[in-house]
Amino acid sequence: SGRARPDSASGPAAGEGAAGPAGPAGAGPSEEDLAAAGLRLEVDGAVATLTLDRPERRNALTFATWRTMAAVGASLPPSVRVVVVRGEGPSFSAGIDLSQFTGEGGEGFPDGSDAAETEAFIAGLQDGYTWLRRPDLVTVAAVHGHAIGGGFQLALSCDIRIVADDVKFCMKEPALGLVPDLTGTKPLVEIVGVPRALELCLTARTVLADEAARLGLAERVVPREDLDGAVQELVQALLAVNAEAAVATKRLLWQAPENTLEQQAAAERREQVARLRALSALRPTP
Ligand code: CAA
Predict the structure, then answer these.
(1) Rounded-to-5 percentages of helix, strand, coil across the chain
(2) What is the ipTM score, two decimals?
(3) DSSP 8-state secondary structure symbol assigned to residue 252
(4) Rounded Cα–Cα distance for residues 66 and 80 (Å)
(5) 170 Cα: distance to centroid of ligand 1 (angstroms)
(6) How far is the CA of 171 from the centre of ligand 1 (A)?
(7) Fewest CB atoms within 10 A around its CB: which of 112, 158, 174, 271?
(8) What pLDDT digit, counting tens, does each position of 224-238 carry?
């Protein structure tokens, strides 16, 4: 049987896998919570812009950043259709704030001695990214400068990447003795395939804009000064499409790689039945 749930075409909040359901949008993190997590959030009708806002630390990511991002995802108003993730200052993100490993100024990274506890800890951080795949949102990473480790994985967690010509992607974790564990390995492999993903991760080398475009890590490369404009252009184009069709199509496309052709064809039929019903309900009866 196909992976689409029988009711999968009926509502926008059908979460996929670990992303979970959208949940009721409620009071999100306060301005203070956001600032303490190095984030800024602007919601303008159908568009939410989440800015990594610690440029003096190259938008290094803390435990608070990931947890607050999860809270942002869970509390976005239902009006939001597109989320833009961007970085303030010279770089998108320098990855995990290295102070998190030393426990400087608070909580430190668990040492793994309690496997279940450590996994639960990491799961809490992963929640910061997984909602970006929710079918009721289209998520766009606007990436410039360095996108290292957890920063690269954040860009990979979005549906679409628009990058500046100064972009520098690097999966640095293996060079630090770690694995990329913020849900980035799946999208990386989906985009570039296992051999290239291996080569990139196990050398921790830097991928520049031209290669990023060639590998499919960037849907578009633009001069640095044009990045915001290019993202706005894309956002307007995304909003011009029927909202419910967009949700159903995203749901369909993200399940395609794991479905057989038969399963996918069945999923297309189910989604289309729901679309046709919705469209005919709008038509005036003769
Ligand atoms: N954590 C904490 N502070 C960081 C940081 C990070 N990841 N990256 C940069 N900073 C700080 C610098 O220490 C510096 O602070 P001071 O002004 O107090 O000296 C400030 O930000 C500006 O940094 P640079 O002067 O180095 O800026 P640059 O533009 O010349 O270089 C950079 C930028 C290439 C990102 C460089 O800072 C760098 O290599 N940073 C470390 C990157 C890194 O190793 N990240 C971890 C990746 S692994 C991961 O993310 C996931 C995981 O789970 C393991």
Answers:
(1) 50, 15, 35
(2) 0.98
(3) H
(4) 20
(5) 12
(6) 14
(7) 112
(8) 999 999 999 999 999
